Amino acid sequence: MKHRSVSIILIGAFACVLLACSGNKGGKGTAKAEPSLKEVFKKDFLIGTAINAGQIQEKDAKANETILKHFNQLTPENIMKCEVIHPGWDKYDFTLSDQLVEYGRKNNIAIVGHTLIWHSQLSGFARQLKNVDSMKMFFENHITTVAARYDGKVKGWDVVNEALNEDGTMRKSVFLERLGPDFVTEAFRLAQKASPKSELYYNDYNNEQPKKRAGCIELVKKIQVAGVRIDGVGIQGHWHVGRVPFKDIEESIQQYSALGLKVMFTELDIEVLPRNFQGADVGQRMTADSTTNPYKNGIPDSVLQQQARDYEGLFKLFLKYKEHVTRVTLWGVNDGQSWLNGWPIRGRTNYPLLFDRAFNPKPAFYSIVALKK
Ligand code: XIL
After folding, report:
1. Distance 352 CA to ligand 1 centre (A)
2. Looking at the domain assignment, is residue 157 inside a domain?
3. Which of the listed residues 49, 339, 341 should we mutate to test ligand 1's pocket, taking the one with most ligand atoms within 8 A of CB?
4. How is residue 191 annotated by DSSP?
5. Which domain, by its residues, includes 208?
6. How do residues 14-52 score in pLDDT, each as one tens digit?
7. Is residue 32 part of a domain?
8. Domain count, the chain
9. What residue owns the CA closest to ligand 1's atom 18?
10. Active site annotation includes 162
11. Residue 30: inside a domain, yes or no?
12. Strand runs labelled E in 155-273
């Protein structure tokens, strides 16, 4: 009698488990069927995305679900830039950056700090420093305070962002003007001291282009010869559909890694809208006319297919050089969030990323996942 009731209970429990499992697989509103990017590329490189303030604060459930499912690295899109984190000479605001670091810690996601020294999105007070000693003091205080706070808590730092012109010479920034060309080496020296447990990177756009690349290599060698640590170079990767410079990218991976550096693709997006210049200078703008926003009511499948082939070609290269390519970071979670809806013309409808505005995977997503099948 006792034996029979135990069997009935066991059979009942087994049936419940079966029901629960089939419900999970087939039922509505359950987890999405698409594979997780971070799982797919687990053995190859980190796969990251840039996130904004609302996403750090988990305000959008769908964005949060996508971030947690697909990415094992995060870069703050804006909130660690000088104008946010260091708004006045004696004033730092770590509210959002502390939240980001905590979000990464609790979800086991690596954070990369972006960025310590950049001429753009620099606080007004710093931009206006005319005196060399004041600029030196700002430079040292800023790097030391920010980098030390997150030492070892971030995987790495974009120590210097965009110090070069297209021809490989140094950009005429407020740092070059006040501090001279050694400011890049000095920034790395200060970051190394303040943050010995995090990696240190130089980051730029178009530094896969031969002339700018040569300038970048010169900059890196100068840092190395000074006996200062630099761990990697970031190629931002803001490219255009149908015009991805594959050959330059491959040569760049080879040449940067020959310097003993890790290579990272740090701000990847492949935009689809008309542009009359190359690169990602946030200060550069374009005028709108009747042809500049062609896909406001939807994008032709042919363009999405070309974009899928471009992403596929890129990831093929990243996989070929996976010993050197340590990270690939998309610049935004989905098309709706992309900065390319607002730059270089405000109010356009762009489609540069792997997830559409409803967080559904696009053809580009499936093309890169298929490489690992
Ligand atoms: C962009 C952000 O995505 C925008 O939200 C902001 O208005 C301007 O900056 N290169 C970089 C990034 O290094 O920090 C820039 O991010 C894009 C170009």
Report:
1. 14
2. yes
3. 339
4. H
5. 41-280+293-372
6. 444 433 433 333 334 444 579 999 999 999 999 999 999
7. no
8. 1
9. 280
10. yes
11. no
12. 156-161, 199-204, 232-235, 238-240, 262-271
What CATH number should be reported for the domain holding residue 234?
3.20.20.80
Contacts 24+ apart (CB under 8 A), 346-350: 346/288, 347/288, 347/293, 348/273, 348/288, 348/292, 348/293, 348/296, 349/293, 349/295, 349/296, 350/271, 350/272, 350/273, 350/295
Token reading at 168: 């490989």
Tokens of 157: 């730092």
Contact yes or no for 350/271 (Cβ under 8 A) = yes
Catalytic residue among 199, 208, 267, 312: 267
Looking at 162, 186, 199, 312, which residue is catalytic?
A: 162
Q: What digits encode the pLDDT tens for the residues 199-250?
A: 999 999 999 999 999 999 999 999 999 999 999 999 999 999 999 999 999 9
- In angstroms, the CA 234 to CA 146 distance is 20
> Tens of pLDDT along 247-271?
999 999 999 999 999 999 999 999 9
- The C-alpha atoms of residue 153 and residue 148 are separated, in whole angstroms, by 10
Residue 358 counted as domain residue? yes
Residue 97, both tokens: 């950056």
What's the Cα-to-Cα distance from 216 to each of 91, 207, 211, 234, rounded to whole Å?
A: 33, 7, 9, 11
pLDDT given at position 11: 46
Using an 8 Å Cβ cutoff, are 74 and 107 in contact?
A: no
For atom 16 of ligand 1, the residue with the nearest CA is 77
How far apart CA 280 and CA 157 sit, in angstroms, is 20
Pocket, ligand 1, Cβ cutoff 6 A: 77-78, 161, 236, 267, 280, 282, 339
**pTM recorded for the entire structure:** 0.92
186 is catalytic: no
186 pLDDT above the threshold of 90: yes
User: Cα 114–117–123 angle (5° rounding)?
Assistant: 95
Rounded to the nearest angstrom, the distance between the alpha carbon of 336 and the centre of ligand 1 is 15
CA of 32 to the centre of ligand 1 (A): 30
